[in-house]
């Protein structure tokens, strides 16, 4: 087989392939066997028809078609593997010559990863927020803990934010009842934002037995994107009464004997959370610095594929009804043109990010262990509410297991860059990456520890 590569642009190539017939004997054997299973010829069992008899019955053309359909994809992959191009997405293949007994020739145009020059990572400098836990934040956490042990008591006053109410709900759209919105005796915390928009404004100031009506835009169900007239009846009002934050409460709500110890622990936990947030901020800012610094030619078909995927995800909640999506966008004060422009911008940024991190992963020799891939699978399975085995099966069926592996590798590549970049707080103090992310472990010591 002979193959050559033409560079059409920094992100696209044409691969020209010529395959002599003497390399296609295994493909012809498979073609004869497959076709003989489909043809019934008296005197021969299915699959046992000799090649010359088969050709005399159906002709040479179907045999050649079968060979081409089987051989071309395999020879394309062989040509890609023997070249130095790193392909992206599916190729556009065109068979240019079938010379029976001599050769098959075809071309394949495909997007490729462009050559990307990344900066010295030590030259990247970003600043992140300080880790500071305020007294108000500690008090908020303490009140949240107290709320878990609070009790509800009925009150003889108008409802206000933070109250727990029992309500009946119903709704109509253009006079038609919305069955999904009809419920009785629903318990709801005013201000929690867990129900439809407008419900809190309607309930605040209402008294037991009052009925209020308001208009809201439905975001799900049969009438998603449409305005509905909602009626809510207030059945009862209760307020949450919190226990005192004393030593007795500390012993009841935690492993500590005193409120002072409990509050100190809350402050320490919040500090760890803020430290984690600081690390995530460093990661995001270093990525932004890379995107601003590195020039990345974008493969157009890869971008288009990403745009289509994002548009599909956007219209999916509206049962793929474009008109309903546009009505919802209008409710958000956005035109379809603005939405499409934002979607393309986000898609281009996502592709640019992937290409940069893939390049860094190659240069840094980033690998992914079975344990790391398993951890990501478990995390994703928990997100989607399925077992890890179910998630793996679904990922394999949809061809997404490779994408999951790539995501883990890119994440590791980015953290490798963050560790080498200069990250400072607002005072200009350089942060200790080992303190922020934990000590870095090289591959050999990690494997040795795993073996032990």
From TrEMBL:
Reactions performed catalytically: [protein]-peptidylproline (omega=180) = [protein]-peptidylproline (omega=0)
InterPro entries linked to this entry: PPIase_dom_sf, PPIase_FKBP_dom, Trig_fac, Trigger_fac_C, Trigger_fac_C_sf, Trigger_fac_ribosome-bd_bac, Trigger_fac_ribosome-bd_sf, Trigger_fact/SurA_dom_sf
Coiled coil ranges: 249-276
Presence of the UniProt keyword Cell division in the record: yes
Domain PPIase FKBP-type: 162-215
Enzyme Commission number: 5.2.1.8
Disordered: annotated segments: 423-452
Pfam families for this protein: FKBP_C (PF00254), Trigger_C (PF05698), Trigger_N (PF05697)
The protein's enzyme class: isomerase
Domain of life from the UniProt record: Bacteria
Keyword field: Cell cycle, Cell division, Chaperone, Coiled coil, Cytoplasm, Isomerase, Rotamase
Biased composition (Acidic residues): 427-446
Family: Belongs to the FKBP-type PPIase family. Tig subfamily.
HAMAP family: Trigger_factor_Tig
Described function: Involved in protein export. Acts as a chaperone by maintaining the newly synthesized protein in an open conformation. Functions as a peptidyl-prolyl cis-trans isomerase.
Domain notes: Consists of 3 domains; the N-terminus binds the ribosome, the middle domain has PPIase activity, while the C-terminus has intrinsic chaperone activity on its own.
Protein name (record): Trigger factor
Species name: Saccharopolyspora oryzae
């Amino acid at each position: 087989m002979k193959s050559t590569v033409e560079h059409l642009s920094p992100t696209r190539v044409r691969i020209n392939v010529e395959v002599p017939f003497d390399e296609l004997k295994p493909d012809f054997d498979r073609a004869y066997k497959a076709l003989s299973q489909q043809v019934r010829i008296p005197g021969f069992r299915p699959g046992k028809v000799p090649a010359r008899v088969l050709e005399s019955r159906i002709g040479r053309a179907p045999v050649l078609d079968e060979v081409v359909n089987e051989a071309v994809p395999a020879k394309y992959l062989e040509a890609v593997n023997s070249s130095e191009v790193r392909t992206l997405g599916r190729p556009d293949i065109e068979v240019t010559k079938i010379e029976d007994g001599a050769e098959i020739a075809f071309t394949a145009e495909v997007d490729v990863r462009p050559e990307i020059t990344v900066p010295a990572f030590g030259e990247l400098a970003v600043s992140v927020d300080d880790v500071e836990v305020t007294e108000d934040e500690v008090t908020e956490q303490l009140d949240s803990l107290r709320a878990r042990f609070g009790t509800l008591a009925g009150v003889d006053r108008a409802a206000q934010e933070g109250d727990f109410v029992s309500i009946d709900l119903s709704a109509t759209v253009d006079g038609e009842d919305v069955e999904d919105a009809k419920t009785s005796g629903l318990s709801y915390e005013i201000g929690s934002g867990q129900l439809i928009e407008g419900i809190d404004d309607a309930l605040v100031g209402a008294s037991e037995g009052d009925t209020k009506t308001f208009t809201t835009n439905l975001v799900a169900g049969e009438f998603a994107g449409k305005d509905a007239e909602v009626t809510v009846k207030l059945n009862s009002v209760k307020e949450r009464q919190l226990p005192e934050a004393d030593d007795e409460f500390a012993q009841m709500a935690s492993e500590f004997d005193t409120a002072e110890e409990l509050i100190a622990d809350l402050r320490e936990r919040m500090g760890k959370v803020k430290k984690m947030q600081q690390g995530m901020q460093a990661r995001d800012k270093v990525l932004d610095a890379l995107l601003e610094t590195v020039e990345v030619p974008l493969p157009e078909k890869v971008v288009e594929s990403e745009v289509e995927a994002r548009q599909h995800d956007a219209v999916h909640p509206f049962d793929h009804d474009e008109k309903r999506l546009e009505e919802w966008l209008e409710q958000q004060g956005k035109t379809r043109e603005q939405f499409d422009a934002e979607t393309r911008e986000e898609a281009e940024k996502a592709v640019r990010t992937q290409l940069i991190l893939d390049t860094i992963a190659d240069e840094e020799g980033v690998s992914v262990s079975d344990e790391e891939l398993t951890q990501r699978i478990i995390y994703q399975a928990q997100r989607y509410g399925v077992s890890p085995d179910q998630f793996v099966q679904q990922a394999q069926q949809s061809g997404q297991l490779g994408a999951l592996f790539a995501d883990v590798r890119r994440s590791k590549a980015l953290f490798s860059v963050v560790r080498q970049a200069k990250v400072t707080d607002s005072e200009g103090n350089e942060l200790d990456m080992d303190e922020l992310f934990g000590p870095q472990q090289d591959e050999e010591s990690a494997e040795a520890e795993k073996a032990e």
